[in-house]
């Protein structure tokens, strides 16, 4: 299978500093029930909390996409941006936004962590009722294609949240069913398959980590959940409520019960306790990373970059200013299957590079832009999302 013939998106650039910018936790208060506390940055290597970017006490500015106006929220209901009952979080790295949903609500919220401005996406696609545990949306992650995905407890709704023409659109992709070989480890029953969180891989498939510690691979095109195994190395009473991939391609899991973080190898499902804070109540984790992606070494040319990463005008800029820049560089664009779809030479003059690259005839989707030097050595990989 000639899938990924080149190193992909995970650039390991000073992990500790980077972790505070692209790894987030939805944390709760120290209570028996679900009570939202805050969204905070997390260092997933050292298990240490960082900045609290949004809390239950924050004064948000909420803008309704449907009404095209600011709204005043009813804080006595389940349908508001600081509802107690939150268990889903995803990180939209293209816009640097956090996306989340209250567990008992069909509302979707998109938070700008810097400005505290929130876009409210009202939709009728999500069918959630507070009294039906099967319908509660408890798993959410960003897919490799840049869209946000969420799955309810019973797998009867698989939602895709995408952005088109500056409007968020919600689609129901269908019902996820058990693989025939799952046996007693059913994805669709409360004891073995409910709750937890999900992560994405570089094929835009998903791994669901249920609260019981079971792991399922959800193949998006087939809408089937195949039992992979059970996490080993965690306490018997550990409730897995959050899961996200760190910059090393390892999975970090967290619990709502006030427990430490663990790092999990996907291949073996063996968990190793992380140092740091031991009593965090975490309902969900979110990051910009994916499993089965190819990690590269740190970018050898520090001042070489591509922007924007979310491309809506069919053009990107390649900019570099470094004495190690010399000769001619080659830019190649790959689709997510690893197929080369575009090539262009880049001219360096006196250690400087400032060039526009037009992305000819690229359809909407995720791509990897790879730049190599004259010897064929990769000097930069970066993921971009081409939008309409």
Automatic annotation (TrEMBL):
Record has Signal as a keyword: yes
Residue ranges occupied by any Secretion system C-terminal sorting domain in the UniProt entry: 306-384
Pfam families: Por_Secre_tail
Entry keywords, A to Z: Signal
Signal among keywords: yes
InterPro entries xrefs: Quinoprotein_ADH-like_sf, Secre_tail
Signal peptide: 1-19
Name of the featured protein: Putative secreted protein (Por secretion system target)
Organism, scientific name: Chryseobacterium defluvii
């Amino acid at each position: 299978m000639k899938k990924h013939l080149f190193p992909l998106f995970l650039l390991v650039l000073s992990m500790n500093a980077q972790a505070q910018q692209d790894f987030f936790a939805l944390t709760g208060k120290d209570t028996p029930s679900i009570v939202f506390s805050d969204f905070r940055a997390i260092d997933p290597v050292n298990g240490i909390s960082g900045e609290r970017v949004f809390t239950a006490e924050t004064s948000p500015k909420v803008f309704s996409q449907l009404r095209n106006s600011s709204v005043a929220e009813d804080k006595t209901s389940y349908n508001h941006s600081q509802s107690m009952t939150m268990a889903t979080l995803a990180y939209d790295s293209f816009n640097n936004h956090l996306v989340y949903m209250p567990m008992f609500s069909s509302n979707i919220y998109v938070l700008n962590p810097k400005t505290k401005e929130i876009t409210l996406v009202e939709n009728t696609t999500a069918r959630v009722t507070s009294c039906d545990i099967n319908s509660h949306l408890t798993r959410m992650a960003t897919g490799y294609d840049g869209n946000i995905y969420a799955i309810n407890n019973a797998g009867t709704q698989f939602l895709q949240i995408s952005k088109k023409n500056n409007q968020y659109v919600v689609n129901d992709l269908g019902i996820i069913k058990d693989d025939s070989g799952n046996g007693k480890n059913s994805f669709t029953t409360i004891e073995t398959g409910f709750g937890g969180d999900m992560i994405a891989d570089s094929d835009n498939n998903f791994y669901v980590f249920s609260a019981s510690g079971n792991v399922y691979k959800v193949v998006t095109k087939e809408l089937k959940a195949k039992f992979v195994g059970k996490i080993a190395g965690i306490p018997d009473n550990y409730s897995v409520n959050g899961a996200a991939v760190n910059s090393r391609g390892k999975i970090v899991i967290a619990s709502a019960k006030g427990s430490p973080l663990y790092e999990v190898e996907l291949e073996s499902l063996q968990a190793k306790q992380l140092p740091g804070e031991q009593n965090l109540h975490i309902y969900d984790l979110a990051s910009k990373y994916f499993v089965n992606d190819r990690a590269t070494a740190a970018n050898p040319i520090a001042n070489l970059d591509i922007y924007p990463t979310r491309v809506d005008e069919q053009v990107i800029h390649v900019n570099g200013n470094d004495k190690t820049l010399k000769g001619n560089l080659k830019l190649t664009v790959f689709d997510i299957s690893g197929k080369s779809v575009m090539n262009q030479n880049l001219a360096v003059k006196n250690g400087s590079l400032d060039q526009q690259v037009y992305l000819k005839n690229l359809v909407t989707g995720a791509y990897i832009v790879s730049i190599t030097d004259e010897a064929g050595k990769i000097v930069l990989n970066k993921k971009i999302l081409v939008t309409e």
